[in-house]
Design the sequence.
């Protein structure tokens, strides 16, 4: 199943292949402030419909995740990084996917603040 998403103004758009399952609700300083609900998938499952040079990028802490966001509206639809095994991953902010009913998602708490 292909999911479509974008930032608020539409400058950053993407598609992600896969069936949306449980989402991670992390309490680290970044995720908590942004209100992220994250769906982790392989980077190869994400098709950018916007050139990467049109996005702004933020990294913090260990600098292992490139948090991409729109320089116009500030919305942050996804981040790219690597899992502990070195595989490239994507953390999709499901709040940026079209037609998602947030009340129907199972949220898995993750203690990023103390990890």
Sequence:
């Amino acid at each position: 199943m292909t999911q479509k998403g974008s930032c608020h103004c539409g400058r950053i758009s993407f598609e992600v292949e896969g069936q949306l399952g449980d989402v991670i609700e992390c309490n680290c300083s970044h995720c908590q402030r942004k209100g992220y609900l994250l769906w982790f998938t392989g980077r190869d499952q994400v098709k950018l419909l916007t050139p990467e040079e049109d996005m702004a990028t933020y990294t913090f802490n260990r600098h292992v995740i490139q948090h991409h966001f729109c320089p116009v509206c500030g919305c942050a639809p996804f981040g790219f990084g690597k899992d502990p095994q070195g595989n490239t991953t994507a953390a999709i902010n499901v709040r940026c996917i079209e037609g998602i009913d947030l009340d129907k998602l199972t949220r898995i708490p993750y203690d990023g603040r103390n990890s």
